[in-house]
Amino acid sequence: MSKSAALGTFRAIKTRDAVARTRDGWPYFEANFQGLSPAGEALYEIRFGDGEWMLAVADDLIPEQL
Fold this sequence. Notes:
Layout: E1 8-10, H1 18-23, E2 27-36, E3 42-48, E4 53-57, E5 61-63
Antiparallel strand pairs: 1-2, 1-5, 2-3, 3-4
């Protein structure tokens, strides 16, 4: 779906629900800051190449190397 370069790769390190485990290792193409989790971690809404969005903490987002 996406023709732009990936921003990075999602890794299910802290986000461990079924959707996160299924998408572990997938590239993401957009990331929108959504505030802080109750634990004080930065939360992002990320979009995968298939157009689906999910919430992830910053520790789960591995930036693409330039």
